[in-house]
UniProtKB/TrEMBL annotation:
One of its GO terms (molecular function) is nucleic acid binding. It comes from the Bacteria. This is Integrase core domain protein. Signal peptide: none annotated. Pfam families: DDE_3. InterPro entries: MscS-like_channel (IPR052702), RNaseH-like_sf (IPR012337), RNaseH_sf (IPR036397), Tc1-like_DDE_dom (IPR038717), Transpos_IS630-like (IPR047655).
């Protein structure tokens, strides 16, 4: 760019910094093709911004295939003038799946680990939620379209537990599920920095983080209305059409 514009590289860097330009950064996105995208957005956002009375709103999902990783060499701690250092080589010691339910109102999380993430494990987690939530409350669960969430055994379970109501996010719209934000914090603060020599150690680290979080929970605050989200997606769709044309 500097050569093309006939200026030095430092001038280009200075201009980029002045205007906050970061051309090296790339963001990914995927537009939902859900026929009921608008209806589902309004449904889920409505639960966040105007939750029903005498009810609990939970955001539920699985963080699957979490790997227990042991570094090939010891991790060197951060020192004055030296960042924390760790080898890119690691040993795998199996995986676990975390099922989690985030209370939208309080920020508290119900969670448990299972070796697999089939419908039968999801049903076990629903039983855990059922025991944890006071019997006089309706339970509204926000979740994605993963196949286990609508498996026959789950439908039968729902028929026997009429106080539970499922609200599905649109396809390719995991950003609508607030528990994904908690998963990101778990990954950054506990999993990515940890060394786990077994799935037992991994599960212990996960539950320790969950317990510490629940000792001082903080709810995420949802700001965007359904209309704002729909308008934003419409602008993105229009931009795609402007760049690539109709297909």
């Amino acid at each position: 760019m500097a050569k093309k514009a006939g200026v030095c590289q430092s001038s280009v860097s200075r201009i980029w910094r002045a205007f906050g330009l970061k051309p090296h950064r790339v963001e990914t996105f995927r537009l939902s093709t859900d026929d009921f995208f608008i209806e589902k957005v309004r449904d889920v956002v409505g639960l966040y911004m105007s939750p029903p009375d005498n009810a609990l709103v939970l955001c539920v999902d699985e963080k699957s295939q979490i790997q227990a990783l042991e570094r090939g060499q010891p991790v060197l701690p951060m020192l004055m003038g030296h960042p924390k250092q760790k080898t890119p080589q690691y040993l795998r010691h199996g995986t676990t799946t975390l099922f989690a339910a985030l209370n939208v109102a309080t920020g508290e999380v119900i969670g448990e680990c299972h070796p697999r993430h089939r419908a039968i494990e999801f049903r076990k987690f629903l039983n855990t939620i059922n025991k944890a939530v006071p019997k006089d409350l309706e339970v509204h669960i926000v979740l994605d379209n993963y196949g286990t969430h609508s498996a026959p055994i789950i439908k039968r379970w729902l028929a026997k537990h009429p106080r539970f109501h499922f609200h599905f996010t649109p396809t390719y719209s995991s950003w609508l599920n607030q528990v994904e934000r908690w998963f990101a914090l778990l990954t950054e603060r506990a999993l990515r920095q940890g060394v786990h020599c077994s799935t037992r150690e991994l599960k212990q680290a996960i539950m320790e983080y969950l317990d510490a979080h629940n000792a001082d929970p903080k709810a995420f605050i949802w700001h965007k209305t359904a209309d704002q989200i729909i308008a934003s997606v419409a602008r993105r769709c229009q931009r795609v059409l402007d760049v690539f044309g109709s297909v």
